[in-house]
Amino acid sequence: MKVEFAVILGTLKANSLFLSDKKLSDISMAGSQVIKEFKVAYKEYSIGRWDICQAMLQNLLAKFPNDGPSISLLNVLKSYNYTAPYDWKGFRALTEK
Length: 97
Description:
- It contains three helices and three strands, in the order ββαααβ.
- It is an alpha+beta fold.
- It has a three-stranded mixed β-sheet with strand order 2-1-3, with no helix packed on it.
- The longest helix has 18 residues, at about 30-45.
- It is globular.
C-alpha cells in the first residue's frame, strides 16, 4: 500500500514510500475497507483539500482507531494546522531519517 510521496533531503525527485506488513495477505473485509477509505482520504491530501482529508481520517479512525497510516497522516495535517501550505505540490519534504 502506498503511503506517501516525499522528497528526501538532498534529492530533487519525489519518491514513493510504502508500508509493508506481513499480514497484508490476511486482509479481512474490514481491512479492505480501511485501505479503500484511506486511499480516498490520501487523494484529498495530495490535492490540497486537507480539511476534507482530516474529516475522512477522523471518520476512519472512529471505526478503526489503531490504523497507523491514518494516525500518521493526521499527525502531519495537525502539524500544519490542517491547512496545506500555499506552495503545496502534492508531497512534502522529509527533513530527517
